[in-house]
Amino acid sequence: MRLPSSIFVSVSLFTAETTAALYLSSTYRSAGDQIWQGLTLLFTLVPSVLVQLTLTFIHRDLSRDRPLVLLLHILQLGPIVRCLEAFCIYGSVGRVEEPYVSITRKKQMPRGGQSEEVERQVGQAEGKLFTHRAAFARTSVIQAFLGSAPQLTLQLYICVLQQGVSIGRGTLMVISLLSIVYGALRCNILAIKIKYDDYEVDVRPMAYVCIFLWRSFEIATRVVVLVLFSSVLQLWVLPVVLLNFLVFFLYPWVLFWQSHSPFPENIEKTLTRVGTTIVLCLLTFLYAGINMFCWSAVQLKLNDPDLINKSQNWYRMAVYYMLRFVENASLLLLWYVYKTDFYKFICAPLLVLQLLVAYAIGIFFMLVFYQFCHPCRKLFSSNMTQGLWDCSSLLCLLCSTSPENRPIGKAVLEPPSPTPHTEPANEGAYDTPDDTTYDIPNDTTYDMLNDTAYDIPNEMGPNIGGEMNGGISHTVSCNA
């Protein structure tokens, strides 16, 4: 059984960021900056409350007699208690006899064109531990993009206005950046495990390094661009942010309305239609918050029973990064045009070039990850480079055939027809044995907890994708 190190990292970042924010807010109060103090506390307490509610909802503590745990959640100490509980479960493995175990079957990565299926026994303690891992995976994403991302933007904006970085503010900014990058990394790992649930996924250290560098350059560049733009055009930054947010918030709902699918009813049996709507709105709110700062590896699809779009499309990713690069360049250009004497000690053209190059470096590490370090790259129907090349060829074809590019008085030659391919219609999507596989995590089973108070949730949301006990068709429970 693996050590719950991801839980420890999540709790450490949460505790460190909360402590640094509370200390910094006290310094703002001493200096008389009431506005900065209020915003700092707001971006600290709101995600903290959401984290407590998420942990309580996942573990279903409201339906169980655990008043002490509920009190600690009210005191915002829930993550610490859950971390201690997870390590106690890990320490008890092998000391207490399992009442029963379950058998799961997972496929190994293809070797020589064949994939073997391996059986593995899963005990009750391991199932409980997975519940904690899945819960903290979700809370890390919530903390990162609903708390750390706006906190980092705010503190960097204050640094620009005050032309200085204090020790407390610098510490909080570093912790917030690490929290955002870690949350984005968790999104990538979740997307891989959701997509290739039938396979035993082994993420190598080099893959973690590539994801970390990719997300670090992407997120840091995005935050700096927004701060620079807001420092010279304060009134225009709000429409830019709202437009970005509303586009990504409404996009899953527009696709859902166009599909004419029935309203999702499989999130949680105890939820009413109003409760389901609130949960879906919170999911789309989080989805929009992620895409504000970086590409969301997990795409929402409300008309799917799992609420997750498993067919990762290279075209959609390429369009996102091209549009985001153009937006960042436009915001930097406006900053360069309207910059004041405040930036006279900065070489503005060099700074613009550095930011654009940094964003390009982030895209480069993304390409390296998908081309060489992705744990399931052997299952791709086409590689990343070919998908992006086809996308760029399509854009060039559209530009060359536009009316303004047609020569006057001459016939425009039709472009040669492309060589027919044998790939599926959704070119660039990941190739899986079954696109209807439920959104079940990689290393667990659900039947093992039918008679216990713990339920192993889906890694992306509480009971997303229907009832959990119907998710695995190859799981066989047996007495120990």
Structural class: mainly alpha
Order of helices and strands: HHHHEEHHHHHEEHHHE
Q: For the residues shown, what is the average pLDDT?
A: 77
**Anisotropy-based shape:** globular
Q: Count of helical segments?
A: 12
In angstroms, what separates the terminal alpha carbons?
18 Å
Q: Could you tell me the number of beta strands?
A: 5
Main β-sheet description: 3 strands, antiparallel
Calculate Rg over CA atoms. 24 Å
Report the sheet-strand fraction. Answer: under 5%
Weakly predicted, low-confidence segments: 403-480
The amount of helix comes to: 55-70%
Sheet with the most strands: spatial strand order: 2-1-5
What would you note in describing this structure?
This protein has about 475 residues and is mainly α. The chain contains twelve helices and five strands. The protein has a three-stranded antiparallel β-sheet. Strands 3-4 form a two-stranded antiparallel sheet. Strand 3 (about 300) and strand 4 form a beta hairpin. Residues about 405-480 have low confidence and may be disordered.
Note the topology.
Blueprint: H1 5-31, H2 34-59, H3 67-74, H4 78-91, E1 100-107, E2 117-123, H5 124-162, H6 167-195, H7 205-232, H8 234-259, H9 273-293, E3 299-300, E4 308-309, H10 314-338, H11 348-373, H12 384-400, E5 476-479
Helix pairs in contact: 1-2, 1-4, 1-5, 1-6, 2-5, 4-5, 5-6, 5-7, 5-9, 6-7, 7-8, 7-10, 7-11, 8-9, 10-11, 10-12
